[in-house]
């Protein structure tokens, strides 16, 4: 083959090889492109007490001829708002006088018998204290956010004291619209956050008997 033809053939071969290498280096759009989507739905959860409110027992009262106040520390409780509504919520409490219960402090026998009284249960015609003898103060109390909760916390409503042993429900905590979402636990109740007012006219009871009251704590939607 003449040298000129060989030179031309070599140039054509090199040009073709360069073109093949260039095409191999370019991304293949059809092989690399992919269309994809993902999604999830959100279902409403519940508005619930995580740990329910619980008023502890008070120490025994020793009569001294004067009006006295017994004190105790309110136990912490928590609220979980998984409703997803952002409507806010509130906690109320009132004395519960429904079947077999008492909305005020009343004479109670915890045993089968207490002297001449039978139990367990409230003593029919037994001694009572007036309504609004039990108060709750949230002065200095706050909230702790749990389980990664962020946002605006609820607020306590009884910094000046609330009477809780009444037939009328009193609001003790409130979360405004958009607040209280997630889980919050109370904190900071003082050693004197609960108080029972005992008048000079309070009477002693039979052995093992106590003054007892039933409280109804309610968790409601809305501030």
Give an overview of the whole structure.
The chain has 223 residues and is mainly β. It has one domain (47-221). The chain has two helices and 17 strands. The chain has helices at 3-25, 29-32, and strands at residues 47-51, 68-72, 78-81, 89-95, 106-109, 113-114, 117-118, 121-122, 134-136, 142-146, 155-156, 162-163, 170-175, 182-187, 194-198, 210-212, 215-221. Strand 6 (113-114) and strand 7 (117-118) form a beta hairpin.
Number of helices: 2
Secondary-structure-based class equals: mainly beta
* Major sheet: 4 strands, antiparallel
Gross geometry = elongated
Question: What number is the mean pLDDT?
Answer: 91
Number of domains: 1
Strand order, sheet with most strands: 1-3-14-10
**Unreliable stretches covering 5 or more consecutive residues:** none
**Distance N to C terminus:** 99 Å
Query: What is the percentage of strand-forming residues?
Result: 25-35%
Written as H for each helix and E for each strand, in order along the chain, the element string is HHEEEEEEEEEEEEEEEEE
Q: Fraction of residues in helices?
A: 10-25%
**Rg, nearest Å:** 36 Å
Q: How many individual β-strands?
A: 17
């Amino acid at each position: 083959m003449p040298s000129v033809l060989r030179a031309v053939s070599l140039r054509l071969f090199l040009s073709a090889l360069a073109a093949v290498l260039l095409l191999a280096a370019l991304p293949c759009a059809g092989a690399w492109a992919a269309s994809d989507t993902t999604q999830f739905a959100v279902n409403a959860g519940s508005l619930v007490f995580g740990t329910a409110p619980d008023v502890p027992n008070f120490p025994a009262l020793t009569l001294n001829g004067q009006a006295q106040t017994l004190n105790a520390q309110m136990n912490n409780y928590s609220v979980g708002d998984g409703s997803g509504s952002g409507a806010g919520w509130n906690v109320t409490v009132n004395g519960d006088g429904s079947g077999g219960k008492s909305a005020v402090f009343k004479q109670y026998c915890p045993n089968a018998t207490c002297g001449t009284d039978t139990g367990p249960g409230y003593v029919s015609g037994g001694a009572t204290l007036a309504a609004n003898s039990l108060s709750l103060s949230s002065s200095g109390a706050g909230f702790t956010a749990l389980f990664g909760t962020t946002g605006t916390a609820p607020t306590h409503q009884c910094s000046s004291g609330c009477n809780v042993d009444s037939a009328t429900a009193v609001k003790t905590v409130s979360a405004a619209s958009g607040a209280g979402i997630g889980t919050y636990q109370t904190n900071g109740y003082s050693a004197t956050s609960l108080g029972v007012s005992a008048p000079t006219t309070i009477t002693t009871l039979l052995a093992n008997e106590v003054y007892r009251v039933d409280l109804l704590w309610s968790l409601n939607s809305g501030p």
